[in-house]
Amino acid sequence: MSRIPRIVILGAGYGGIVTAIRLQKVLNYNEADVTLVNKHDYHYITTDLHMPAAGTGDPEKARVNILKLIDEFKVDFVKSTAVQIRPHEKKVILEDGTLSYDYLVVGLGGEPETFGIPGLKEHAMNIRSINSVRFIREHIEYQFAKFKREPDRKDYLTFVVGGAGFTGIEFVGELADRVPELCKEFDVDPSLVKIYNIEAAPTALPGFDPELVEYGMKVLADKGVIFKIGTAIKECTPEGVLIAGDEFIKAATVVWTGGIRGNHMLDDAGFETMRGRVKVDAHLRSPQFENIFIVGDCSIVMNPEGKPYPPTAQIATQQGECCAHNLVAAIRGNPLKEFTFVNRGVVASLGRGEAIGVVGNRKFRGWIASVLKKLVDIRYLYIIGGIPLVLRKGRF
Amino acid sequence: MSRIPRIVILGAGYGGIVTAIRLQKVLNYNEADVTLVNKHDYHYITTDLHMPAAGTGDPEKARVNILKLIDEFKVDFVKSTAVQIRPHEKKVILEDGTLSYDYLVVGLGGEPETFGIPGLKEHAMNIRSINSVRFIREHIEYQFAKFKREPDRKDYLTFVVGGAGFTGIEFVGELADRVPELCKEFDVDPSLVKIYNIEAAPTALPGFDPELVEYGMKVLADKGVIFKIGTAIKECTPEGVLIAGDEFIKAATVVWTGGIRGNHMLDDAGFETMRGRVKVDAHLRSPQFENIFIVGDCSIVMNPEGKPYPPTAQIATQQGECCAHNLVAAIRGNPLKEFTFVNRGVVASLGRGEAIGVVGNRKFRGWIASVLKKLVDIRYLYIIGGIPLVLRKGRF
């Protein structure tokens, strides 16, 4: 190539933004032309969205302006929505233009997986963006206001959360904390409010330490959460959910956190996927197109036992670092490095002052775990934006 | 009477609460048995409701716990809703019981008058209670959240306020202040938001000084309010309003402030009314039943020109004082006094730091008028609850 190579990064989630930040550090002047494309002009901290969704945290704390993270002399930022990838033409179609690339990084994030359950796509809300969590927060508050006008409508005060994975558990924890505040604000008897957490799997937080899961469920049950574990949602309607055993739970609010699949654009573009996610090679590339790297929720990486790692912020961040390294190596003609996931520990928040976590071989619970959770968040802010970002967005 | 007379006060609005407070001051021990009945356990400051409705003020500031205002050793408080007055039996039917009285004070407040405009009763919201203004506030915020999910729905960002009387004008003033905050919070382009104030009468604030009205409308128009004066609403639907000239304004929010009528219970009980309001005698009594006093929005008092005074907090408060005096006089066999309304001035707020007012012969505008407005509010808090209430609920 005589001209400098063009790198396009789609999506400024964990994988995309870390790739961009790393590239701007490592690339030399005029070594490559990097363009980051994102729908919004901000990056958001997905692992924190359960708080603004419940109304216990400010959405502003969960997002960062992209122009505060990237150096515009080194990375171009385009605020637009990608609509199509054309791997054979090395082009990306945006809603308002086209970009050509030599190397593409797909960090488009996931979409809710509803497993074909009727009505879930149409009637359930999802915790997946700043807009969606502001919507959920307003929707919840509105139900309390509506209930005061129609006191027979107990379903306004019934909240169904489908899925007891990380997002589901963390969200019900926050919601259980928020309910007493809302009851006070709207003069509602707290005993009328019901929070259901419904999970088809035989346990909450599958794969997590069973002893900690038991502890966590007890903490949440004490806060009023009603668990229906090993219970599938069979259908979602505008009136509520039908669950296994043909019980119908009337609820004006259904939030679905039960699954993530890859972005539909990958299927549309002819990538071979499993639930929309591409099983990448050892260097995080598409097995079909070696100039396309895939990071975050759109990618699958297998663990040593041959099972996919769950899509988390932690793995996406590590992929971003590796992806940037490999892009630079590819441009310089150096050998690429293999991606290896290093589990730095997992912490699930259970609301105010309570959490459960595993770091290495050690288990944590209670306030220590909740401090750990904050440290994980702060560490991430530090990685992407240094101390200034920690001070601006950290929750202390 | 050998036993002590029983006084029942229906409603703890301006007229009712002032009657109760005055009675507990003036009556001697065991001179009468006073019962105050109210739907909620709080009194609210109706003249302030435009703020929490728009979201610019805390609803808590606009209400006061009734038990902080009355002395339970002197006045019994019953939290219940009156459903029927039986004047011939001297009984009041509550939703959960019955009360007998020797003297009744009807201070039930008004109901929205929709002048038979189709759909207004069903689809428009009203600024008339703490519950209703919390509902309006949540409804407005929800529209912004919904718009972010459906950006084609400009009607989510269109707000129609029917009526440019005091409530309408004060509400659009607050709403115009609130919109920029909401746009910032929800990342909405402020130019997409439309606030219409529609009034059938040939002027806003009919009866108010025309020069001040012109000034006020200019202030509000500069904040973005679109006035349609001399324009009747012909119909309200779930999609918006049809106005004179067959223009349809698509709007997900319609707030109706265009009129007040008396409580339906008066008509039901056989009182002679004009739009549900009873033209009381010189002593504030029903011309049909001399043991029934009527105060506030359910009563009509004529001005010296033979026209009804508009129903305001000011007149209701003065009626409460006179009513208490006459109840005591009636019990003691003293002559009753005639009610005379003393206009202490009128101030209309136009949002943050702006107002228009007339006190005596002097006109006020701008920040001086807005300070005056605050003084009016503080004066009322002082009347009902002394300095402690001013400190707790005053807006400084």
TrEMBL record, chains A, B:
Annotated FAD/NAD(P)-binding domain residues: 6-320
Pfam families per record: Pyr_redox_2
Keyword annotations: FAD, Flavoprotein, Oxidoreductase
A single MF term (Gene Ontology): oxidoreductase activity
Coiled coil: none
Cofactor(s) annotated in UniProt: FAD
EC number annotated for this UniProt entry: 1.6.5.-
Top-level taxon of the source organism: Bacteria
PANTHER family from the UniProt entry: 64 KDA MITOCHONDRIAL NADH DEHYDROGENASE (EUROFUNG), APOPTOSIS-INDUCING FACTOR 1
Similarity field: Belongs to the NADH dehydrogenase family.
Entry protein name: NAD(P)/FAD-dependent oxidoreductase
Organism: Paenibacillus chartarius
